[in-house]
Amino acid sequence: MRPFLDLTRADLHDYATHYHLQWIEDSSNQDSAFDRNFLRQQVIPLLRSRWPGLSQTLARTAHHCGEASALLDSEAQILLGRTLEPEGTGISIHRLKALDVAQQKLALREWIRSAGYRMPSTAVIDRIVREAVAAGPDRNPRMEWREAEVRRYRGVLYLLPLPAEFDGQSILDWPSGQTRLELPGNGALVMTEANFGGICRKQLENSRVSIRYRAGGETLRLPGRQGTHELKKLFQEAGMPPWVRERVPLIYLDDRLASVGGFWISSEFSETDAGLSRIGLRWVPPAGLSPLPFTAAGSTVTQGQ
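Above: the chain sequence. Below: its structure as tokens.
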């Protein structure tokens, strides 16, 4: 709110003097090293001496620009609504390509603005259009600026905060009796009571529980499914983006893979006999990854939990 924007400094000074108001003079206003003061003290008086109606002209132009800006904002919201995925998790490349380049940039800027991020430079917006929108379907480019990053996966653009650093080589022990384990830079793991699925409580309590991350080549047997499944294949089947895969915590019981972030439980540890107490596992992702942009088939948790 700027209620005095249409008033001159002289108007304000006369009003304050008439009503005996007190005010504080900012000494920096006299320093012409600041651009605003140089314009006010040197440039504007010179222009006004040539064009006396300068202030009114600038005010009128600013008003017109404000109206145009409001129309653009409205158009940007409409364009963004046409390009967002139904769940609102990202922008559809297919829908974005249906717009011309100027409209693409307008929708992208509105997307970033509405998410609360400071606007990136024109060069970054141009890169998103050139490298992410126009990239081949097998490419997963990433554009980063100081505020956030844009990633592409399976025909969708995702806007994410810059991820916190975490050590993918670390191994963490989960102390017995502790139902929540903080993962440095990567959210937390939580144990809950489970009415179905989950890990057999007896096996969990009688094992050393440790947390690791993918090293490559991990496999898992799933309840109700034949054979052994590579984690890579499970991730692809679930549509899990690469930047999530590398952060999914793997829960090991005595050096045997028991659960993949709570999304999949090994059949070796998922006793289904009635009466056996079970423990559910849930990964609480770090800020920016939740709700997770995928649904794991056969998962023990659902998207957004």
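The first helix runs from residue 9 to 18.
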